[in-house]
Amino acid sequence: MGCLSWKLQVLCLLSFLFHSTSSSLSSSLSSISPCSALLHFNHSLSLHRDASPPLDTPDYPTEYRSNIHMCDNSYPKTASWKEDKDCCTWDGVICHKTTRHVIGLDLSCSWLNGSINSNSTLFFLPHLKRLNLAGNFFNYSIISSEFGKFKSLTHLNLSHSMFSAKIPHEISHLSSLVSLDLSYNDWLLIATPVWKRVIHNLTQLRELFLDQSNMSSIRPNSLMNLSSSLTTLSLRDCNLQGKLQNDILSFPSIQTLDLGYNINLEGSLSKCNWSSNSLKFLSLSDTNFSGKLPDSIGNLKSLKSLALGNCNFTGSIPTSLGNLTQITYLYLHRNNFIGSIPTSLGNLTKLTSLTLSYNSFSGLLPLSLFNLPNLSSLYLRYNQLVGPLPNHVSGLLNLNELFLGSNFLNGTLPFWLFSLPSLVNLDISRNQFIGEIGEFKSNSLERLHLGNNKLQGSIPRSISRFVNLTSLTLSSNNLSIVLELEMFSKLKNLQYLDFSYNLVSINNNVTYTLPNLYHLNLSSCNISEFPIFLRTTTNLQLLDLSKNRIYGQFPRWLVDVGRDSLYFLDLHDNLLQGPFPTLSFLNMQYLFVSNNKFTGEIPSLICNTSALDVLDLSYNNLSGMIPKCLVHSNVLSVLDLRMNSLYGTIPATFSKRNNFRNINLNGNQLEGPLPRSLENCRYLEVLDLGSNKINGTFPYWLEGLLYLQVLVLRSNKFQGCIGNPKIKSPFPNLRILDISNNEFNGPLPRKYFKYLKAMTNVDEGKVALKYMGDRYYYDSLNVMIKGFYIKLVRIQTVFTTIDFSNNSFSGEMPKIIGRLKSLKGLNFSHNNLTGYIPSTLGNLHNLEWLDLSFNKFTGEIPRQLADLPWLEVLKLSHNHLTGLIPSGKQFNTFDNDSYIENLGLCGFPLSRMCNNHEAKNPPLLTSQQEDKLEPENGFGWQAVSMGYGCGVLFGMLMGYLMFKIGKPKWIVRMVNWLALLLLKYLVQGYCL
């Protein structure tokens, strides 16, 4: 008991001492002078230049955000603070003239680095009215609740300073705030209770900036409860979600409203009925706003900037936009606008930037746009504009950027286009311009894109004066280009050069240097040698010399070009020969050398290029075995080695973490079984192993590859029956299945047909035309189409076909094939199929060719086939078909070859006419009725009939024996033995 009392006394003493110490410390801190508090605050932080980097400029005019160019000229303001000087003279410190209280502190962009904790002496400046700590690095620290104690604060700016977590509710205590900027921190969370307090308490707010905060829980319509005196509201990229009422756009005092980059924010302007207000800046870009623009938008006479890009606005632009005579920035990029561009936009004489690209504007270019005196940027790319450029213009003296690419503009290039004194960027590519390129008068061009037109002649000599030129694209024209010293030696800043699909001559007798060149495309230029100037190019990243006449061996010096930088090399379709080179490009990702004459083995050192993504060595004369290291790769996505002379087996060690999307080994001499490790290729979309000597049974273990769309096993030595699937949904995305020219037998795999979901879906008219592959490598394939082997240079994602021809399949054709409604081609020719042709094939409304020739089909041709609207090729020859050939629609286009060697057929186009009995068509069965006739176990009517007939005879015999002999036990044993023998006979040739 005494011990416990002693411990309590000690605890009480410690508590007293701690309380006394805390009180003393608090008292001493509260008595710290403002100058000492500032010094303590400064000493708690360090200075680093990287803490205040220049900020990226957003895509709207500079006059509408004072901090857009913040930190461009940052410096450490506190570095000049001296203890022996009055703090009121320190840089960034403002004091009251009479009381000498510190009332303002501006340490924006001051290289401050560290954390501001709750015990910081910053909070011992109770008279602060303005506090600006923007543009520093506060190490993801939490905004302290102590900020709520600055009761006199009218302006608080903590933007771009890497605060994190959530905004404390104490911020709502700053009832005198006029301006609050917490934008561009680490996604500060604004909880609903805090937001409600801010709305309720901060009634003096005129400016509120919360850009790139997390407001996902805030209802958009709560914005209506903000102060009606608000002049600036910026909630850019705040994850606002839901529908916003129009009323927020009509706040009486609002001048700047930025709700851009809230992609799930919905709304419409179509019902806005503006009369006039003070709105100067409006941004709804990258939101889900939709509908038409109202005519009343022309009443916003004070508007200087309107940004509505990347939304879903529709309809035509109202001509009333021409009333916005104060506007300088108009951004309507990537919407669904249609119709002509209003000529009234020519009234916007203060306009400096006009962006209407990525819409569906049509008609002629308004001449009025080319007479705007202050226009510096004009973007009209990716529309449907037609006609020539105007012959004469009176404005555009300040034009820096002109982008008219990807339209249908035509005619010759007018003289004024080459005389714009301030032009820096010119893009008129992907149009239909003709004639020659004129001589430029100015030397200011930095980017010149004239590709994909019908221009002819030579390059203007004036290009050699463009010392600041970084990008030059003249591709896909009819130009004659000479790569010579005089023309290009002065273009030291050139980085991007594309002369592809022109006639290019190279003078390799004189060399010159393009030290900054990183992209060179001379594809399809009819050149016969490597450009010698490449020897001195050290920063090359992309080199495309494909589709030329370059002959000889791979030059050794080319290996040293871009050794550390080259990631893309395309030499396909040339005349290169000799051993395949040992390449040592450290960062190579895409390597294309197909359609050359390389010989020898593939060097295993190619695997040292650890970043290799696409390797295309197809259509060469390479021999040897496939290097095992290639299938060990975890990066390689495309391995195209088709049409070589590779032999041996496919390496059996595909990594479990591999990234293969396309493996094409077609047309080699590979043999042996398929490696089971191919099932590790979880992302595989294309597997083409056709025309080899691969053996074994059907690789059912590939059925679990969820992304597999193309499987080609054609012309190998596969054999045996194709059994039932081993999983519930095999090959869910398979669209092209070719196992022709093998030795498969047994019945057709009905259960597999049942689960080919990608062939069941018909969405061709609902999706945009797409091709398999990506921007650098599009999948290609040799496939039998309408009786001919055709190379699909690109594979449409809606293309579907099944080819089981030239095997030994037997039995009936499963009627369930009629469910594969997206099929374009079906080939079961040269097998031993029997029974009727199922009428369910009439459901295949996308079918373009059907080949069932060289089988043993019987019965009549289903009349439903005559209703297939796209059927172009039909081959039913060499069967046992009978009766009248259906007529009408596509069947009227087929000739005798479709039906020959079917002695029982009659009617057009055959010369044999039908008698009265043959001319009668049987009643049509519905697909449901036919499904009922479909045997679930794979036995057709023949097997059932055989079993029934044998059963009758066998029963009569057994009855007689039992009656005569009377030995039921012996009979039972004999019946069991005979039954097993009979069953074995009946199922012979069937796969169970």
From TrEMBL:
SMART domains: LRR_TYP. It holds the Pfam family LRR_14. Residues 244-358 form the Disease resistance R13L4/SHOC-2-like LRR domain. It comes from the Eukaryota. It is found in: Cell membrane. Keywords: Cell membrane, Glycoprotein, Leucine-rich repeat, Membrane, Receptor, Repeat, Signal, Transmembrane, Transmembrane helix. The chain crosses the membrane at residues 939-963. Residues 1-23 form the signal peptide. It is a single-pass type I membrane protein. The keyword NAD does not apply. One of its GO terms (cellular component) is plasma membrane. Belongs to the RLP family. PANTHER family: LEUCINE-RICH REPEAT RECEPTOR PROTEIN KINASE EMS1-LIKE-RELATED, LEUCINE-RICH REPEAT-CONTAINING N-TERMINAL PLANT-TYPE DOMAIN-CONTAINING PROTEIN. This is Disease resistance R13L4/SHOC-2-like LRR domain-containing protein. It comes from Quercus lobata (Valley oak).
